[in-house]
Design brief:
The chain is α+β, with helices and mostly antiparallel strands. It is built from 15 helices and 13 strands. The chain folds into 3 domains: 195 residues, Orthogonal Bundle (Triger factor/SurA peptide-binding fold); 114 residues, Roll (Chitinase A, domain 3), CATH 3.10.50.40; 98 residues, Roll (Chitinase A, domain 3). 45% of the residues lie in helices and 16% in strands. The strands form 4 sheets. It has a 4-stranded antiparallel β-sheet with strand order 9-4-11-10. A hairpin with a 2-residue loop joins strand 6 and strand 7. GO terms for molecular function: peptidyl-prolyl cis-trans isomerase activity. Keywords: Isomerase, Rotamase, Signal. InterPro entries: OMP_Chaperone_SurA, PPIase_dom_sf, PPIase_PpiC, Trigger_fact/SurA_dom_sf.
Length: 452
Amino acid sequence: MKIFLKHTLLTVLAVMGFVNMQAQESSKKRIDGVVGVVGSYVILDSDIDNGFIQAKATNQDVSTLSRCEVLGALLENKLFSHQAIQDSIVVTNDEVNARVDEQIDRMVEYAGSIDNVVKHYNKKSYEDFRETFFDIMKENLLASQMQQELIKDVTITPEEIRQFYNNIPKDSLPLVGDEIELAEIVIKPEITKEQRQAVIDQLNQIRQDVLDGASFTSKVYMYSEDRGSLETGGFYTIDKKSQFVKEFKDVAFSLKEGEISKPFETDFGYHIIFLEKISGKNLELRHILITPKPTQAAIDKAKNDLDDLRIRILNKEISFADAARQYSQDKDSRQSGGIMTNSRGETRFELNKMEDRTLYSMVSNLQVGEISATTLVNDRTESYYKIVQLTNKIPEHLADFSNDYMKIRYVALSAKQSETIAKWVSETVDDTYIYIDDEYQNCTFKSNWLKK
């Protein structure tokens, strides 16, 4: 079904930032060929080339994809970025750096090392790579926020979902790949009250040092464990809509200008905040994050406890679901007996599209009812041990309204959102400076980029 290809293409080219990082290193034959301009944004012919490269790198089928389609997606992305600036949508450097860190972590996971990533993109150094990637990410975050602003009020009813499904020709129903359903049990190494208090005492001492005249920024570089803000000295600009956890925003907005908070806890660890400036609805602040660390003995005990629990389940002394309810320390899945959900709240995971490579390695060879080995999981905030049971396997099949309702709902809503965006693009193109090179004047675009 075309709607799937369309959203995949936009995701690859527009949202994820896979655009022109190799453009400057492309062949001299095409490198500086400007093929499009939207407002103040320029598109090079090499950007289109790189669009194909990146689509292939993310396992997209490009055999039927034309240069005109890729150019159309790039033009649309530039229009979003251009209009975001016109509408005073702000993307802070802190937000960009945080997203850059996330993407670089993913790249390193696949490439094996940061040196391999830098080499892949033909950059001279990590600093050169990061600077280029920063500019790209900032543009794409602007585009993404503009799109979110356009679709934030779009909703869909069950009847609209049914109509969407019924309007799909039976011979065009999308194929859903092999899916699995999973349950988990998580055991975390114990952090004692003494270890927590030690971190609180350390932050209190840092706070007192700053009150006595020390530099808060210097303390950030010395102690903070927030990688996303370390390069900027712990600096963030936030408002009440910023995507920070509630506890962090509650404390930040309770401070007076120049005040330093007392230590407080979030899911990430313990923080102190220094509110530098109140600028209208925005707060300019710096913070220090320190996370209590378990002892090696606590880490070993967590593994041994989960190993023992796994044996009890295998010996049928207790069911996996009951064990999850009694012992698992994952607050999201514990009450449901360990049932796992994906990022859209669905209980089914399409095996070949799992982004969590640790989870994939744990379950890819399991049969229904089998339980994975006890595995150490390292995420951005903590480390813990996990076992996973494969509870059900659904073979590849054509989408079914009842069994695949959540997937159909997602696609139907995406289609409605796309219609909203398409209408906005059509109306906005007429009021925006657009240039298309002669080579692409015969393209059939879905939007009126040629203004004919």
